[in-house]
From TrEMBL:
PANTHER family: SULFITE OXIDASE, MITOCHONDRIAL, SULFITE REDUCTASE. This is Molybdopterin-dependent oxidoreductase. SUPFAM superfamilies: E set domains (SSF81296), Oxidoreductase molybdopterin-binding domain (SSF56524). InterPro entries: Ig_E-set, OxRdtase_Mopterin-bd_dom, OxRdtase_Mopterin-bd_sf. The chain crosses the membrane at residues 12-34, 73-93, 100-118, 124-144, 168-188. The lineage of its organism: Bacteria, Bacillati, Actinomycetota, Actinomycetes, Micrococcales. Coiled coil: none annotated. It comes from Microbacterium koreense.
Length: 519
């Protein structure tokens, strides 16, 4: 082989290879990150989806005619080919015209991030996988091309094929293989959850046999900055131990009801949906919610009473607990009376008018008014074992949390929002108060060391939901200390004693210093 063709190989083929290896590694890690963060944030699936949305219908028809049900695969392969060509060009440019290769690769990452944010239901995190992909690709490209020295053909020193080049080939090869590997792992998992997500979106839940409470207009005070009385699914807090959201095809879901019962049985998705479903509104709270925190939300749920499920199994008289388990290994211990008394303890399939979002337990979760989530609200639930507290313990109990977790009486100041400037004059203090299944009868507010004043309470949807409150305030310039406390429907006043969230929920008053400026 002549010197000049050897040289051309170094100056064209190797930079192209560097580009391809860098982009493949970036995309692979990006796909893997999408698996962890949100399947809908997959950079490749995102760009593919955007292209599908943008494509004129004749192009879609042509693709389907040409590739049939493999049209999506053809699209992904097509995107892959374009990506590889661009990657090779970027590698070449990075050697010849630095930093244009890194600029192109970074721009691809930015494009992927923007597309993912526009298409995802959770834009707050959706940009991360593409950002990881772009950053990894850019850094790898910089690193690899540093080992290739561009030299004009005229002054080429063709003997330079030493250890640097071998190291380059080795490292590029490693990057390529690692990228392909992670892309496969990420891509296969993504395909799985995209499929479950598609099943979920195609689902039509039956109408409730028992309609939930009408939400009185007076339940919503409509004060800017105050939490809405019904929390939209997109802003509902999410707490779980699942690094990867379980993907459960409802057709394959079963609930095993077993343990200390006279009759064990399995319940399928179709059987569950055929039962008369009931609608209810229940506020779900996390035991880890600090005083003033926002790990709490209120939704309209559709589900079937767990008491009727248990009645069919006929629990033994000495059973006092139900250990619910999820697909991903989480478990919760719920006192059996909370599941068999007249409260709306349900196997939920719907949340605010749609099937449960994947991260909120699709296809089936538990919701039990009056208990913190960690002892009651098992998502992706697959088993109910009737047992006793002295025979079994749940996930968080084994990690130092209380085996029982009734929700504590709490109230929170939402308005004025922390950090907002308040102008002297007519203003309002407002917030939320709750003690699910007991109810709230009043909220009192203290400004500086003044008397406790009665806040106006919005209409409660029910004792199982939180309630909004507000207090008009003639604010005077200066710093003011504001605190609130709730009174429960059974006459208790929220305690001022400060308790941490461990082991069974925080107590204390929510206090805030509000700076009021001259009008
Ligand atoms: N499978 C499973 N279910 C779970 C959990 C979990 O980690 N895994 N966390 C629980 C806790 S601690 C809470 S507070 C609620 C939160 O439900 P959400 O994420 O829908 O708001 O889910 C409960 N159900
Ligand atoms: Mo929780």
């Amino acid at each position: 082989m002549g010197a000049s063709s050897e040289n051309r190989r170094i100056s064209t083929v190797l930079p192209g290879f560097a580009g391809v290896a860098s982009v493949v590694l970036g995309v692979g890690l990006g796909e893997l990150a999408a698996r962890v963060i949100a399947p809908s944030a997959s950079p490749v699936a995102g760009i593919g989806g955007a292209l599908i949305d943008l494509a004129p219908s004749w192009a879609k028809d042509a693709a389907i005619a040409l590739f049939g049900t493999a049209d999506k695969i053809a699209l992904v392969v097509g995107i892959g080919i374009v990506l590889l060509v661009v990657a090779a060009i970027a590698g070449w440019l990075q050697v010849r015209r630095p930093p244009w290769g890194i600029v192109i690769v970074s721009a691809l990452g930015v494009l992927g991030a923007v597309v993912a944010m526009m298409r995802s239901v959770s834009p707050v995190t959706a940009w991360i996988p593409a950002a990881i992909a772009g950053t990894v690709a850019a850094v790898t490209l910089w690193f690899l091309t540093r080992m290739l020295h561009p030299r004009p053909a005229a002054s080429a020193d063709e003997s330079d094929a030493g250890p640097d080049r071998r190291r380059f080939l080795l490292l590029s090869g490693v990057a390529l293989v690692a990228g392909v590997g992670t892309a496969l792992v990420g891509g296969i998992r993504t395909a799985g959850s995209v499929a479950v997500d598609a099943i979920r979106r195609a689902l039509k839940l039956p109408a409730p046999a028992v309609a939930g409470p009408a939400i009185p207009a007076s339940a919503e005070l409509d004060i800017p900055g105050l939490a809405p009385v019904i929390t939209p699914n997109s802003s509902f807090y999410r707490i779980d131990t699942a690094i990867i959201v379980p993907e459960i095809d409802p057709a394959r879901w079963t609930l095993r009801v077993h343990g200390m019962v006279e009759e064990e049985f399995f319940l399928s998705w179709d059987e569950l949906l055929a039962l008369p479903l009931e609608e209810s509104v229940t506020t779900l709270a996390c035991v880890s919610n600090p005083v003033g925190g926002d790990l709490i939300g209120n939704a309209r749920w559709l589900g079937y009473p767990i008491r009727d499920i248990l009645a069919r199994a006929r629990p033994l008289a000495d059973a006092d607990m139900v250990l619910s388990r999820s697909r991903d290994g989480f478990s919760a211990s719920t006192p059996i009376e909370a599941l068999t008394d007249d409260r709306n303890a349900i196997l939920a399939v719907g949340m605010n008018g749609e099937p449960l979002p994947l991260q909120h337990g699709f296809p089936v979760r538990m919701v039990v008014p009056g208990l913190y989530g960690y002892v009651s609200a098992t998502k992706w639930v697959t088993s109910l074992e009737v047992t006793r507290f002295d025979r079994a313990s749940a996930y968080w109990t084994d990690r130092g949390w209380s085996e029982r977790g009734p929700v504590k009486l709490q109230s929170r100041i939402d308005v004025p929002r922390a950090g907002t400037a308040v102008i002297a004059g007519d203003t309002v203090i407002a917030g939320m108060a709750w003690q699910q299944h007991v109810g709230v009868s009043g909220v009192e507010v203290q400004i500086d060391e003044g008397p406790w004043q009665q806040a106006d309470l919005a209409t409660a949807i029910s004792a199982d939901t939180w309630v909004q409150w507000s207090l008009p305030w003639q604010a005077t310039p200066g710093d003011h200390r504001v605190r609130c406390r709730a009174i429960s429907a059974d006459g208790q006043t929220q305690t001022s004693t400060v308790a941490p969230v461990v082991p069974d929920g925080a107590t204390g008053w929510n206090e805030r210093t509000i700076r009021v400026t001259e009008a």
